[in-house]
Amino acid sequence: MSDNAEHTTRSQGFYLSIGMGLLVLTATTVGAAFVNLGPFNPVIALLIATIKATLVVLFFMHVKGASEKLTAAVVVSGFFFLAILLSLSLADYLTRSWR
Amino acid sequence: MHDSQATTVEHEAHNPALVHQFADAQQQKNAASLGMWLFLVTEIMFFGGMFCAYLIYRLAHFNAFAAGSQQLSILLGATNTAVLIISSVTVVLAVKAAEAGKRKVLVSYLVVTVLLGMTFLVIKGFEYKEKFEKHHVPGETFSLTNTFDDNGKQIPINQKKAELFFSLYFAMTGMHALHMIIGCGLFSVLAVLAWKGHYTPSYFTPIENAGLYWHLVDIIWIYLFPLLYLISRHS
ipTM score of the complex? Predict the structure, then answer.
């Protein structure tokens, strides 16, 4: 039972292709920075960064397929509280000129 | 009844890494993983505070932030991003090697990870050196010039606001670099212990948890790179 702990890792090829995907996304974000997209430049940059971070969390940090659902809950709550920090702070600073 | 109990105890005794408060190795591993994730959440909130400060000041002083950002080298920043991504791959392959019980493969991947981490730090060091030479380090000698618009005309930059960008740049990349130094130390120790045969397919939790730490540090850089290096580059 204990000595045959379930295997969480995937094949070497799988990890190499995720790594390649991350490198391609890095090149994409650099390329996109040189194209004038107006207000969407930072949006695209953050979107690509979030896709990359999600790939790392799900497949390198093995949150997808984790045996313990509690781990996933902790991860999600962590990012949830970060979202509260950022959104409420910006809700303040971005609306100060609304008088 | 006595017999089955005896075999259970004997069976568990085969795994010296299993401490007595846990029912089995899987439960012990889950508890360690959960604890590590709780630590990582505190790290996310710690860096989150700096990201929040960055966002507020960037929105308030966008032009100065863009001028500061354009002084950074995209080539070096992108190279470092690639170095960290490759190091994350070697970390996950190290975990896989540990799971398969391949000791030498595990040690090699751990050593390569440390070398990649050091490569990142050396490149970062060259970037910092350039910042010192150009007086882009916040302080009395700070000055930011040589910013031009589309027609080659020099744009006046508010020095105090540009200094704020570089304060945040050094605070965030400096704190990230400190995490990289800690990570390199951590993986060096793990490489020695792995070489001595401390880790087996039934116990390699330290490799996994150090890997989680390394990936998180990678994720922080994934956000730092576009936010610091790629502001308003298209003009």
Answer: 0.89
